[in-house]
Amino acid sequence: MGYPSACISSPSRQPQRHQDVSSSSLFAQLSFLAPPDPITVPGGEVPAAAGGGAAGAAAAFVAPRLPPQYVESNARYLRLSPIKTRRVIQEIRGKSLAAALAHLAASPRRPAFAVFRAIESALANAIQLHADKQIQPQLVSVTATNGPVFKRPFFKARGRMDIWRRPTTHVKVIIKAF
């Protein structure tokens, strides 16, 4: 669904339709996001819960862990639109951690506060995990994914009913502490 040209003041304000995912993207360069090897036990057989047999086939994939210098935080089930949250995240892309926090603190948009809190949480996690050494945190990635959609009844005239969709968002922040 396109936007009428009269609604958009400049070409830079048009929404980004497709994200360019190429081999030079951040996630392609990070080897820790590759699927893990199957789990083996000292006896040499694969346990049933890790993929050995039909019952464990669904549980074969184990989420990869981040290396120790990367710290993450998740803000889940936020009552925000994922599209509007991605707009706020797009504004801070490429900025340093301090510049991103300053931009979010001054932003009038509603999702900015939630993204600010998620970045603060990741920063607190980095400080707690690396308390023994001096760190210089660097913002690696901030992503907003769709959460479940809550549906609420909306009663209308003449006994009719509609459904109000209440979207939710999951925000994930990854910080590199070195």
Automatic annotation (TrEMBL):
Domain of life, per lineage: Eukaryota
Any one GO biological process: translation
Record region (Disordered): 1-20
Record's keyword annotation contains Transport: no
Molecular functions (GO terms): structural constituent of ribosome
Any single GO CC term annotated in Swiss-Prot or TrEMBL for this entry: large ribosomal subunit
Keywords from the named record: Ribonucleoprotein, Ribosomal protein
Pfam families linked to this entry: Ribosomal_L22
Family: Belongs to the universal ribosomal protein uL22 family.
Protein name as catalogued: 50S ribosomal protein L22, putative
Organism of derivation: Eimeria brunetti
